[in-house]
Design goal:
Helix 1 runs antiparallel to helix 2. The termini are far apart. Helix content is 70%, strand content 0%. The protein is built from 2 helices and no strands. By secondary structure, the chain is mostly helical. The protein has one domain.
Length: 67
């Protein structure tokens, strides 16, 4: 389920690769949450809270990895 695309760039580094993987994981999780909410499995408020928490984690990851 975690098939990350390859990362290519002029400023490649292990930290940038790790952040890129975190970004892809964020996008995948948001997609799952949206699907659950759209199918009525979770409420709109729960979906919002979960996505907000995921975004906070992503921002923290960015600060740690891309100083």
């Amino acid at each position: 389920m975690e098939s990350f695309s390859s990362y290519h760039g002029s400023q490649w580094s292990p930290n940038r690769l790790a952040f890129h993987q975190n970004l892809e994981q964020f996008a995948e999780r948001v997609g799952l949450i949206v699907g659950l909410q759209g199918n009525g499995k979770i409420s709109q408020d729960d979906a919002y809270r979960q996505i907000r928490d995921l975004l906070a984690e992503l921002k923290s990851s960015r600060k740690q990895l891309l100083k």
